[in-house]
Amino acid sequence: MTITDWLLDIVLVLIVFRQLREERLTARTVLLPLGIIGWAAATYLHHIPTAGDDLPLVGVFAGAGVVFGLSGGLLTRVRLAEGHVRIRATAGAAALWVASMGFRLGFAVWSSHSSGGAHLARFSAAHHITSAQAWVVALILMAFGEVVVRLGTIVVRGQLLLARARRDGSPAPAPQALPGAYV
Questions:
Q1: Considering all CA atoms of the chain, what is the largest pairwise distance in Å, rounded to the nearest integer?
Q2: How far is CA 10 from CA 14, 19, 49, 82, 113, in A?
Q3: What is the pTM of this model?
């Protein structure tokens, strides 16, 4: 693992810790994690291997990321205050995020050491996983699924709160300087 790999994982964990304090849902709240995971995808995701059982491996990991993201998004507190959507990661949401990020980091550390790498090579051969790239793709798409689905869940919940408030006659929030502040 490179220093960049370590920094990426640390930054993604810190993002959710920052959200343990309630904050307003803004474009920055959504775009920062998407930008980080987009950079990781562009850096590490060169092609999706399709030989052997590579696709099922990728599908299982991506599916796990979607489940983690949906669970984290549903466990995040979303409320309306003074006409603005406010979010706060609960302890459960933070624990899920740290567990999934920790799994990916731990897996990367384990697999890059001789005993872990040898075990992973034997497992891959026994289960028809044809390349190390399949594992990289699986882990990246797991992270991507988690980030995108978690953010999507939070944004949809916020938009539903705003729509309900408008329907009930509450005043609309004041216009924002940043376009898409209520993405």
A1: 63
A2: 6, 15, 28, 33, 20
A3: 0.81
Q: Are the C-beta atoms of 65 and 141 separated by less than 8 Å? A: yes
Torsion, CA 130, CA 132, CA 136, CA 139, rounded to 10: 70
pLDDT tens digits for range 135-179: 888 988 998 999 999 999 999 999 999 998 888 876 555 544 444
In angstroms, the Cα distances linking 71 to 91, 102, 120, 127, 145 are 12, 17, 29, 29, 12
Which of these, 63, 24, 43, lies nearest to 154 by C-alpha position? Answer: 24
3 state DSSP class of 174: coil
The C-alpha atoms of residue 114 and residue 39 are separated, in whole angstroms, by 28
Backbone φ and ψ for 161, nearest 5 degrees, come out as -65, -45
